Amino acid sequence: MNWRKIFKPSAKLSIFTLVIGGAVFGAVAFYAGQTTLHATSTDEFCMTCHSNHSLQDEVLASAHGDNESGIVVNCRDCHLPREPFAYLQKKIAVSPDLWRFVTTPGFNTQEHLEEHRLEWAELTHDYLRSIDSSTCQACHARVYDDPPPENMSRMAVGMHTMNKNRDEAERETCIDCHKGVAHPYPEA
């Protein structure tokens, strides 16, 4: 093996320089990508397009914003999965919404929200079903515990136990029973 070719394959740059340069560029690109992904997952960012909608007020008035424990749910808690690959997939899938915000007249109005609320609710429910409501279960993982959380009603314990004991193909996911928990579910 000719070490000279590895460290000096051309008159200008060695492979060593190219590898180090590539690693530095990759690290900077990764950091910039992560920073961008997280910056676009904040409530402040979401509200830039939804500032004239009632969505944030709806959450704050619901059990996800006004509860005994004092926990206030952020947009990302329900709308973005925690699993890294699913998170990236969802970010890519919703990126056209930025274009719609720029090109759709009246996008940032309550009237536009009400006109499309049923369609968007169904899309969200379909998505949550496709991920088995993993965003719900990230916070509500204890609903299937034995013994169940003490603040669950007997009926809720019975329903969750019955659902847990079903065959996997017949099991319901959170959103099948809990529609409208953060935003009012529109009448069809």
From TrEMBL:
The protein's matches in InterPro entries, at most eight in alphabetical order, are given as: Cytochrome_c-type_ET, Multihaem_cyt_sf, NapC/NirT/NrfH, NapC/NirT_cyt_c_N, NapC/NirT_cytc_sf
Which cofactors, if any, are listed as required? heme
Q: Which GO terms describe its cellular component?
A: plasma membrane
Q: Which protein is depicted?
A: Cytochrome c-type protein
The answer on whether this UniProt entry bears the keyword Cell cycle reads no
Q: What is the lineage of its organism?
A: Bacteria, Pseudomonadati, Pseudomonadota, Gammaproteobacteria, Chromatiales
Give the UniProt record's GO annotations in the biological process aspect: anaerobic respiration; denitrification pathway
What does the PTM comment state? Binds 4 heme groups per subunit.
Q: One Pfam annotation, family name?
A: Cytochrom_NNT
The regions listed as transmembrane in this protein's record are: 12-32
PANTHER family associated with the record = CYTOCHROME C-TYPE PROTEIN, CYTOCHROME C-TYPE PROTEIN TORY
Q: Which family does it belong to?
A: Belongs to the NapC/NirT/NrfH family.
Residues that coordinate or bind heme 4: C136, C139, C174, C177, H178
Q: Name the positions where heme 2 binds.
A: C75, C78, H79, H183
Organism, scientific name: Wenzhouxiangella limi
GO molecular function ontology, one term from the record: electron transfer activity
What's in the keyword line of the UniProt record?
Cell membrane, Electron transport, Heme, Iron, Membrane, Metal-binding, Transmembrane, Transmembrane helix, Transport
Tell me which residues make up the NapC/NirT cytochrome c N-terminal domain.
9-187
Cofactor comment? Binds 4 heme groups per subunit.
Q: Where does the chain bind heme 3?
A: H140
Topology with regard to the membrane? Single-pass membrane protein
**What is the annotated localization of this protein?**
Cell membrane
Write out the residues that bind heme 1. Answer: C46, C49, D97
Q: What is its main location?
A: membrane
Sections of the chain in a coiled coil: none
Q: Where does a menaquinol bind?
A: K90, D97
